[in-house]
Design a protein that fits this description.
The chain is α+β, with helices and mostly antiparallel strands. 31% of the residues lie in helices and 30% in strands.
Length: 151
């Protein structure tokens, strides 16, 4: 794919990240739904600014098409989102890999994330294919908690 770039997220990316989150094909969250969870452009921007929630964005011809963010306190992959037109091209895998490397450099030996427990949802197979293993735990939304050992 031409003109595809990856870069660390900057605070000004937060508002567009929220917009893209509402446009994902599966597990979309609107701006209102995110706000109800305490996630706003301002809070997301602060997390990028203070380093507590670093991330990477993928851009096509200078326009953001997806992103992945992690939590440096817990080792959680907080979100991986990609516009539907760009699925299946390795972009999500690359974004996830960049975030895994970043958290591993922070000293984490185990990372975790929440993922749909429904095998029909793309993320269910995606993470497992990449080596993430179910812990047997579920979060408050019924999503599986998966973990990955890093070296």
């Amino acid at each position: 794919m031409t003109d595809l770039t990856y870069r660390p997220a900057v605070p000004d990316d937060a508002a567009l990240c929220i917009t893209i989150r509402g446009l994902t094909r599966e597990n979309a969250f609107s701006e209102e739904e995110l706000r109800a969870l305490g996630i706003t452009a301002e809070s997301w921007s602060r997390g990028i600014q203070d380093g507590s929630c670093p991330g990477f964005v993928a851009c096509r011809e200078g326009q953001m098409i997806g992103y992945c963010f992690g939590d440096v306190e817990s080792g959680e992959i907080v979100v991986l989102a990609l516009l539907p037109a760009y699925e299946g091209q390795g972009i999500g895998k690359t974004l996830l890999g960049l975030m895994i490397e970043t958290l591993a450099r922070q000293g984490f030996k185990r990372l975790f994330l929440a993922c749909s427990s429904d095998p029909k949802v793309r993320s269910h197979g995606f993470y497992r294919y990449l080596g993430w293993v179910p812990t047997g735990e579920r979060d408050e939304y019924g999503d599986d908690i998966l973990e990955l050992s890093v070296h």
